[in-house]
């Protein structure tokens, strides 16, 4: 159905609507017609068990493809930057970094290619027995959607963001590359930080990733409260979040704008981490303690390279993760994922909850024999 047909149909079906409600309805119909379907979100919340098993990330251009699924992370959003870990002496030199790219593929099945991200070498960090190469990217190919629908969604997103005031805008090429990287589901965790005086904070984090077993990378907005706090303490605890507690993690997003919190006011019980004794949620399905080794400013963000000092794998339950809406649409069409159920899960995480509701969820969990056991 073309746009004109949509407009005519809307006028026939809703002749008595008020001017404002009709305008909104027409806009929705037009958007659906232009996009070839529903608008796909930049972030879609979904559950994955332990380290995601749906997508494998390959590094191409260094001879035989290298599996870097658990050896890369986003190091900055602006400029969009990717960090990849190599064992000492095995990283390509600068002259061999010009033709590198990441290829994201279906793990199993037909091994279909989901996206590709070209890499532009920028810098190299050394720590322990590893080298960490930093790459920028503004070129990619995304195979998750048909070309027309892919470009219509991108065009609509550009139009919407251009009308938002006081918003940091990422160049289109970098935004596209970021969406291609997020065709791989990535966990959303809670980062706890505390100083020796007991001041602390806890907030959700998803721009992060494993850099082999010994290291972890994450980034925070430069000069914001959490970033300054982490620079000061240089030690944090990272808690994986079961999907059941997704709304609580989403609820804590406001802590990004708070200098410190009162741990006793959190709507869930905590326990001290193994080494640092930093409070972590009792419901956490995995807790890692990280010692920051390198702090690297990358434009709008600060990249933290940290060593993993402890890793408590508590329970193997569905974990809160996020992926781009393009990949979620591909999952529904190719993996047989139930659209209504997955949409309900995403809505469940995003649903606004009050502190009272969060406390009620926590109380229900407390009634279980073990808070870390899924309901």
Automatic annotation (TrEMBL):
This is Uncharacterized protein. InterPro entries: Split_barrel_FMN-bd. The lineage of its organism: Bacteria, Pseudomonadati, Acidobacteriota, Terriglobia, Terriglobales.
